[in-house]
Structures are given as C-alpha cells and as structure tokens.
Design brief:
Strand content: 15-25%
CATH topology of the largest domain: Aspartate Aminotransferase, domain 2
Keywords: Iron, Iron-sulfur, Metal-binding, Pyridoxal phosphate, Transferase
Order of helices and strands: EHHEHEEHEHEHEHEEEHHEEHEEEEHEH
Distance between the termini: 20 Å
CATH architecture of the largest domain: 3-Layer(aba) Sandwich
Helix content: 25-40%
CATH superfamily of the largest domain: Type I PLP-dependent aspartate aminotransferase-like (Major domain)
Number of domains: 2
Organism: Bartonella apihabitans
Function: Catalyzes the removal of elemental sulfur atoms from cysteine to produce alanine. Seems to participate in the biosynthesis of the nitrogenase metalloclusters by providing the inorganic sulfur required for the Fe-S core formation.
Shape: globular
Structural class: alpha/beta
Low-confidence stretches: 327-334
Number of helices: 12
Family: Belongs to the class-V pyridoxal-phosphate-dependent aminotransferase family. NifS/IscS subfamily.
Catalytic activity: (sulfur carrier)-H + L-cysteine = (sulfur carrier)-SH + L-alanine
Oligomer: single chain
CATH class of the largest domain: Alpha Beta
C-alpha cells in the first residue's frame, strides 16, 4: 500500500475548495431563518441572495432565474415534468426526448410516464444522432402537448461533449423546450448559457469544489417555470419549498466564483495527453472510449481486453490511486456500462475512468502509469 493517496475521481466528486470551506464555516454562525424578517433572518437572507448572484454571474444570467435544490437529481426531477406554468396559463409537455447516454437523474425521465419517454440514440463516438432527434421532433404531435428535450453537455463517464448549440437549434425549430445538464461541463470549461441555447440548466456544487447536497436549476427567463416538486412554505418563490440550507448555499456560491483559467485548461489537456499516450504505449489491447470525439480534457475512460475493471480498480487502489470502475458488480456478475452499451461497445469486463483535477500533477500521471504497468505484468503471471 502506498503511503500517500492520489485522487483521480474528480468526476464523481471534487475536494472542497478553500473558498467554499471558508464560506460554509462562516455561514454556520449566521443562524437566522432566511424567511424571517428580523435582523438575524435578514443576515441569512443576505447570504442566500449573495450566493444566488454568484451562481447567476458565473452563468451570465439573472439571479431571479436561479432556484436552489438539494442537488442535480432534485433539479432534474423538478424540471422533467409534463406540467409547466407561463404566468397563470398552463403549459403541457406530452413527451420528453432523452439522450441514450444520460446520467440516471435525466435518464429516469422524472415525472413523465414510461409511454411518454423517447430515447435518442448516439453514434459509436457517443454523439447524439442529430438527424434522429430532428426526425422524431418533426413527427411529434403538438395537439397532445409540446416536446421537451433533456441532454447533458458532457458525459460523466466518457467525457464526450455534445453539440448543444446544434441540438438547441433543432429543439427551437420544433417549438420545444431544452433542458441542459451542465453538471460535468461547468467545472472544466467556460460556460455562458445564452450561447448554448437551452431553456433550463442543471448544476451541482460538489462537482466544482463545493459541498454535497446542494445544487440548482437555472432558467434563461422567468415566464415559463415547472410545477414544483416540493410543496410547502413557498420558499424559492414557490418553486422549491423548504427552509434553505444557508451554509451549503453560501459554499456553493463561493465555489461558483472559482472559474477554470486558461492555465487550468492547458494543464488538464497536458495531463490527458500524457496519460493516454502512456496507456497506449503499455498495452496493445487497450481502448479509450470517445477518443475520436470532443471530450472533457480531464476524463479518460478505458478498458483492457481480458482484464476485469474490478481487478484494475483494486490494483490501483492498493497502489494508492482512487479511480472509478465503469462497471458494477452485482451477485458476482459484471454489468456493462449503459453508456458504453448505447455507443455499441461490448465491454463485458467493464472499464476504468480516470478523471483529473486542479491538484493533479504530471508526476501523479507518471506514477499511475507505473502502477498500471505493474498490474498488467502481474496479470500475466
């Protein structure tokens, strides 16, 4: 066992940033209820609205368009509903169209019944088939209601980046609404939601150096809004009842101010190039999924033919490296990743995801490759 650990699972969750930690600890002393009108309540409300501005500024939208939730899953569940309001008028969505490689929080289709869900296939590189999306939306029966499309900007397993702008153009032409999951995208690339062309966006704090248990959905306007998922005291302008967690929200806001710099992006790309070149050098039976597509520069998802992902993951863990296995073990059986299956990849032994972050160094990558070489060598004995 290595005496020190190297964390290479940033797509699962990120370490808490110093700014987020300081904001969280400071906010713990602001104990008032933000809905109270007295001084203590107003102090909590001020922190809440500061964070709302921080989230809005990062995404180049208005603070009033930010609704805090317990995380991305709740945000998705709120947005993925057939029932919306535009002012006092009801707006009905009769069907939701979802990418085949979506995170489960989108893939489960929220509050839409099973017969009201349509899957849009991806190609072998993990990119949404735009012609299929356009064809299905053209055939959508608007007499029953409007179409809704939900898509992730970047896949958390492969890192594949979707052509969100092109998708938005197709959705807009069909008179539909586009929900964009930017949970994985936002911490790795600059985001201006206006240029994406979506109507609603989903974010989570713990993917960008914030704490777990807090996220938001962000609208590009205030006219069209979903029927609330959680009813009660009417917090968050009635769109998400329940007393807001001011410390978590304050930390979320602080994390949102930590934008990736050009230097960060260059460093991330250098790590990926070093890693993937080394992997290919060490094994001729290795495939990197989505390698031919635009990808997040921090993400490498690979498999070695004849070598189980669990074996690799345990070997890396013993060597001091935290990585994710792209397969799940249930009752002794290895299950293939749904993302890889949707891409037409048969990977019975599973895959390994390496996702780097701000604190990952080139030496970490070299040490990881050395550990990989030893695992391969031992597997042949």
């Amino acid at each position: 066992m290595s005496s020190s650990r190297c964390y290479l699972d940033y797509n699962a969750t990120t370490p808490l940033s110093d700014a987020a930690r300081n904001a969280l600890v400071s906010a713990l002393d602001v104990y008032g209820n933000p809905s109270s009108v007295h001084q203590e309540g107003r102090a909590a409300k001020a922190l809440l609205e500061k964070a709302r501005r921080q989230v809005a500024n990062r995404l180049h939208t208005e603070p009033d368009h930010v609704v805090f939730t317990s995380g991305a899953t709740e945000a998705a569940m709120t947005l993925l509903t057939p029932d919306y309001k535009m002012g006092r008028s009801d707006v009905h969505f009769s069907k939701v169209y979802i990418g085949a490689t979506e995170h489960p929080c989108i893939g489960k289709a929220g509050r839409f019944e099973k017969d009201r869900q349509e899957i849009i296939d991806v190609d072998e590189n993990g990119i949404i088939k735009l012609d299929e999306l356009e064809r299905k939306l053209s055939a959508h029966d608007k007499s029953e209601g409007l179409p809704m499309v939900a898509i992730q900007a970047a896949n958390g397993e492969t890192g594949v980046i979707q052509p969100v702008g092109n998708i938005a153009d197709i959705v807009k032409k069909a008179g539909g609404v586009l929900i964009v999951d930017i949970v994985q995208y936002i911490g790795k690339l600059p985001v201006t939601i206006g240029s994406f062309g979506g109507d609603f966006y989903i974010v989570a704090a713990h993917k960008i150096g914030g704490p777990k248990g807090i996220g938001a959905f962000v609208a590009t306007g205030s006219a069209l809004m979903p029927q609330p998922l959680i009813l009660g005291g009417g917090q968050e302008k009635g769109f998400r009842s329940g007393t807001e967690s001011v410390p978590l929200i304050a930390a979320f806001g602080a994390a949102m101010e930590q934008k990736p710099t050009t230097q960060d992006l260059d460093h991330s790309k250098a790590l990926q190039m070093r890693l993937e070149h080394g992997l290919h050098q060490l094994s001729n039976n290795l495939v990197i999924f989505g390698e031919k597509s635009p990808r997040l520069s921090n993400t490498t998802y690979f498999a070695v033919e004849g070598l189980k992902a669990e074996t690799l993951q345990i070997g890396f863990d013993l060597a001091g490296f935290a990585v994710s296995a792209g397969s799940a073990c249930s009752s002794g059986k290895v299950k293939q990743s749904g993302v890889l299956a949707a891409m037409g990849c048969h990977v019975p032994d599973g895959a390994i995801r390496v996702s780097t972050g701000k604190h990952t160094s080139l030496k970490n990558i070299d040490d990881f490759l050395s550990a990989f070489e030893k695992i391969i060598r031992n597997s042949k004995n």
